[in-house]
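Reviewers of the previous submission asked for a worked example of the structure-prediction workflow described in the proposal, so we include one complete record here. The input consisted solely of the amino acid sequence. No template or homolog information was supplied to the procedure at any stage.
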Amino acid sequence: MNTTRPIPTTQNDAWGFWGTMNEHASAAWPLAMAAISDATSQPLESVRAFLDSRHGRHFADDVQNALYRAQSLADAIHAATQQWMGWTIGRQTSKDYGIPRGLPYLTGFVIHCEIVDESLAA
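From that input alone, the workflow returned the following C-alpha cells.
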C-alpha cells in the first residue's frame, strides 16, 4: 500500500474481522487493511467497513483456516485475499445484495459494505 494516511481502527472489536482474529487481531488488522485495499483498489474507510461487517468475519475465518494450516499471518491474509478475489459475484448474490454480477467477490463486498455504512450514517 502506498499511502501516508493512517489506517482506520476497527469500530467493531467484538465481532467482524477483529473479534474473529482473537489474539492475532492487532497484528492482522493493518496487514488485512493494506492487502484488501491494494487488491480491490478501494479506500481504507471502505475496507474498514467490510472488515467490521459479518463479511469481514467470514474473511477472518479464511485467514484463521490458513493459520491452522501453519501459514504465517501475512501469508494467511494474502491467501484469503487471493481466494476472495478469485471468486466472482453470481446471479443470486447479485440479486440479494445488488452487487454487479461477475465482479470479484472481495471487491463487491468491500463496496457493498461501504454503501451500507454510508446509508446508516445518513
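The two ends are 29 Å apart (CA to CA). We consider this example representative of the routine output the project will generate in years two and three.
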